[in-house]
Design goal:
Blueprint: H1 4-7, H2 16-30, H3 40-54, H4 57-66, E1 84-85, H5 90-98, E2 123-129, H6 131-136, E3 138-149, E4 162-164, E5 173-180, E6 183-190, E7 199-201, E8 213-224, E9 233-236, E10 242-243, E11 246-247, E12 250-256, E13 263-265, E14 268-276, H7 277-282, E15 284-290, E16 293-299, E17 308-311, E18 327-334, H8 341-353, H9 356-369
Parallel strand pairs: 1-6, 2-12, 14-18
Antiparallel strand pairs: 3-8, 4-7, 5-6, 9-12, 10-11, 13-14, 15-16, 17-18
Helix pairs in contact: 2-3, 2-5
Length: 371
């Protein structure tokens, strides 16, 4: 005996809501487009048959009372019933509960065509900014080929009046029959000719050729906020391609060029400055570059090469914030490659006074004693 309740994972006598909920869950699970089960198609057909019987009050009552013998009762036709119309769109059920676009026609080797969407699609463009423009913000003008509603026909596609769609007779939907191993059943889908509107043009608009949409080059101003960085994107609502029922959005993806002096990490910036041997030894005050100009930085005596100094608040303004990052200055002590005779003499005199060599010799003596 075929146990339709067990097929749907239900107890005998389950209510309408339980049956519908179980069916939608299993139809999604075993749909051949997404299921990895080896017998997905077979399972899907079993679920479909069980739902067809249990969702019909008369068939359900006969099945509950007589089991498989219910097929002998008047009013039952094998499978889904020859020419019997189902009161829902299978494809809409899949789309609603899975977020994916399924096509029931695939199961039986045929693809049913859906109506075209009337909402405009999103547009993505890349925009390159200089380091400074990204740091301080700016306004850029971009050009793009954008699909827009035809101004002549206001998006209707008609030059004058509209008439009832001859394909769907104004219903906005097409009813189609499909023959399956269980019989013939009917499904309903959006009309392909009128896209669900129920109306078509008596005479096509000469500007858009009945499409209701045209492609035009458009200039759009993009406001860049300070602190934006590579891979950030700006969303401009309603600036994507237009459709008959609304426009998509424009996404501007940012790429920031490198700077010849500064490097960037989020809102902090980094720079290197050279100082001489004597400046590092004696200490000094040097000018360092910042995004807002030059700043004085005090270098204490004895500063070693690679020492990093922090200049607070001299970085980049944080995105969507009033606070700023910091600037980090790395000191590079330069060793002269060429020296005058006098410079060499002075360094030789200094070398005799230095304690470093004596301390180094003492260090090596301690090391060698251990061996």
């Amino acid at each position: 005996m075929t146990d339709y309740y067990a097929t749907l994972g239900l107890a005998k006598g389950a209510g309408v809501d339980e049956i519908k909920k179980a069916y939608k869950k299993l139809a999604k699970k075993y749909h051949p487009d997404v299921s990895k089960h080896d017998d997905a198609e077979k399972k899907f057909k079993e679920v479909l048959e069980a739902y067809q019987v249990l969702s019909d009050p008369e068939k359900k009552q006969n099945y509950d009372n007589y089991g498989d013998s219910y097929k002998n009762f008047q009013g039952y036709s094998q499978g889904f019933g020859h020419g019997q119309r189902m009161d829902f769109d299978f494809e809409d059920i899949f789309n609603q509960f899975s977020g994916m676009n399924f096509d029931l026609g695939d199961i039986f080797g045929r693809r049913s065509q859906r109506g075209t969407q009337d909402h405009g699609s999103n547009v993505k463009i890349n925009l390159t900014l200089s380091f400074v423009d990204a740091a301080f913000g700016t306004t850029k003008e971009i050009s793009l080929n954008r699909i827009q509603r035809c101004k002549k026909c206001h998006g209707s596609g008609a030059e004058g009046k509209l008439k009832t769609c001859p394909t769907c007779q104004g219903r906005g939907a097409e009813v189609r029959q499909q023959r399956t191993p269980f019989g013939v059943f009917q499904t309903q889908s959006t009309c392909r000719q009128c896209s669900g509107k129920g109306k078509v043009a008596e005479k096509e608009c000469g500007e858009c050729r009945g499409n209701g949409l045209i492609t035009k080059k458009e200039k759009i101003k993009v406001k860049i906020p300070p602190g934006i960085n590579t891979s950030n994107h700006l969303r401009m609502q309603g600036k994507g391609h237009e459709g008959k029922d609304g426009a998509g959005d424009l996404f501007v993806v940012i790429y920031v060029e490198q700077h010849e002096v500064f490097k960037r990490n989020e809102a902090d910036i980094y720079a290197e400055i050279p100082i001489s041997f004597t400046e590092s030894a004696l200490g000094t005050t040097v000018e360092v570059p910042t995004l807002l100009g030059k700043e004085n930085l005090k270098i204490p005596s004895g500063t070693q090469t690679g020492t990093i100094f922090k200049v607070r608040g001299k970085g980049i303004q944080k995105l969507n914030s009033k606070s700023f990052g910091d600037e980090y200055i790395k000191v590079i002590v330069e060793t002269p490659k060429k020296m005058s005779k006098k410079e060499k003499e002075l360094l030789q005199k200094l070398s005799k006074e230095e304690k470093v060599a004596k301390e180094r010799n003492s260090f090596f003596k301690k090391i060698f004693k251990k061996f």
